[in-house]
Amino acid sequence: MGHGSTVNCFRFGRKSGQVAVSGGDDTNINIWRIRENETKNIMSLAGHSSAVECVTFDPAEKRVVAGSTSGAIKAYDMEAAKVYRSLKGHMSSCMTIDYHLYGDYVASGSLDTNVKIWDLKTKNCVQTFKGHASEITCVSFTPDGRWLTSGSADGTLKIWDLTAGKLLQEFNDHSNAITCLEFNPEEYILVSASQDKTMRFWDLQAFDLLGVTPTDNSATSSISHTISEPYSGKYAICTSQDMVKIWSYEVSIQCHDSVLWNKQALSNTSECLGDTLVTDNLQLFGASFSNAFVSIWRVDLTQLQPFKKPSAKPSTPALSQKPSAPAPSQKPSTPQTNYNKPATPLHVTKPSTPAAITPSNSTSSLASSSRPTTPANTTNTTPLLVKPKTPQVPTPIETTSTETAMGSETIARFNEKPDNSEYVKELKVGMEISIRAFKSRQKALEQFLKYYWDKGDIHGAFRFLSQLPSGTREALSVDVFNNIDLASVGLDLEACVLLLPLALELISPTCFESHLIAGVNVSKVLVTAFAPLVKDNREARRNNREVNFAGEERAARCDACHGYFIDLQNKLQAIHLPSCARTTNELKALLSEYGWGR
After folding, report:
1. What residues does the Katanin p80 subunit C-terminal domain cover (predicted)?
2. Domain limits for position 577
3. CB neighbourhood size of 108 (10 A)
């Protein structure tokens, strides 16, 4: 049993996939620990005075935010197990909620048709977006945190610019309520699902419709993308009230496989889908609820297409050693029939227990059963393979038999054609991963230039760099450092604080040489420009004990730079690369000159 009365909402924690939260008419929020064979209620949070309609975790899974039918929103600290923020502003039920990936901001949609952005630090509503004609059914931040998407009951989909505080784009293609919004983790593509029983795929760079799925039997309620390589972002796992379907849309919109998860749907039993989550090992976890009960279920995606590995066919060595022209006097005997086609059904009959079927065991048993062991088979094949045509030198019979036996084995072994399919498949996977990485880097660079650098927002540009995922962040930082003359940009102390961590990340003995050189060069520019300022500021504060509120922010930045300079000197001691030895020594000397040497 999940709650004391009807359950209304459920949400998995995206970071670990091992916690979940639910809310219901009993006004409580329950926290669940999810294990493969166990689901346990570990905490119950109170505070709302009306039914809870929507819940979500923060990205770190340390806080929970919940909206209720009264319009009130409450944020809970899970460690303290209590309410730490109460937000009021909606005039009617709060229907949907989402947490920002990079800050303490929450988006909420209400029955009053308004979308609000809340700052949890100040407890204030910082943005109110109006324009929907009906109730808001779902809201979702874009992965970079710059935009917000919202869907309503009339099928309208709107995209809002959080920085400018205005509407960017509106789509009216759906004919019924929006049920789900999901972003591709690798590309700027939005997937929307609706009660019109279709899904639509949107390119948010060109604001174009990429495609639409055929009308289904039921509406999709939850969408999750694959997140592990080499499938990251390539497949959307779409779940309705009865089915799980696997879609791809990279080249064309295609449904690869489907499976029925809710057999009770066939008997019209009311069970509502709450949320789904795809793990790194391709396991789909889903949650559904009916009345006061919550059900957690799992689908093994590796048993569905396109993730299911093809079953290995049994190898038949006899076929490669079969004589091309058998002796005319011989008749097929019983051992020969068994040799080419095993008659024993033990290896191919399904066992009664499905759990006992494993691809590795099945393959090994079939391969071993097809291996020839009867003397009749050896007698039939060996003389035909090695019979000499015109022996030139007479040799003893013992030597001839030994040499021909060894020769036949060697010839059979080296005449076998190598199977290169696995190598080709591995190369293709590697190429796909590389292409995806380059595309991701290119799109990040385009966003960096278009939305920050070209507009003169230097601080925003460097913050954007620091928030990129590892792998893309380092490569893009090197591209920026090598192509922009930072000395002529007009950097200030805040920019120095933002740049130093990016440069330090590149200075490591394990980094690529190009990364290391770029990090050392940028660090030299920053130390030359800001080391005197940081040193003077710290000495002035040491000599003057007066409180200066106006200079507190500047002092905090100087202290941050001081810590980075110490880390920089420590990292330089481990660098012994000849190609940048001169620049490294100059940087060490600069740091020593201003008091950060060894």
Report:
1. 435-576
2. 432-593
3. 26
Number of compact structural domains in the chain: 2
Instruction: Decide which of 258, 277, 303 is a domain's last residue.
Output: 303
Given 281, 303, 325, the domain boundary residue is 303
Residue 361: per-residue pLDDT: 37
Which residues are paired to 158 by β-bridges?
150, 170
513-543 helix and 552-572 helix, angle to the nearest 10 degrees: 140
CATH number of the CATH domain containing 296:
2.130.10.10
Q: How many helices (H) and strands (E) does the chain have?
A: 12, 27
Residue 286: partners with Cβ closer than 8 Å, 6 or more residues away = 222, 239, 244, 261, 273, 274, 275, 276, 277, 296, 297, 298, 299
Taking 50 as the pLDDT cut, the residues of the chain under it are 266, 314-391, 393-406, 414
Q: Please tell me the predicted confidence (pLDDT) of residue 539.
A: 84
Residue 162 is predicted with a pLDDT of 92
Query: What would the two tokens of residue 399 be?
Result: 């030597």
Predicted pLDDT of residue 117: 96
Residues with Cβ within 8 Å of residue 565, at least 6 apart in sequence:
500, 527, 531, 534, 591, 594, 596
Asked if residue 442 and residue 299 are part of one domain, the reply reads: no
Nearest-5° angle of CA 431, CA 437, CA 438?
A: 90
In sequence order, the 6+-apart residues with CB closer than 8 A to the CB of 207 are 159, 168, 169
Please report, for residues 197, 267, 273, 290, 531, the alpha-carbon distance to residue 264 in angstroms, rounded to integers and kept in the order given: 20, 5, 12, 11, 69
pLDDT for res 299: 92
pLDDT on residue 188: 86
Give the model's pLDDT for residue 312: 54
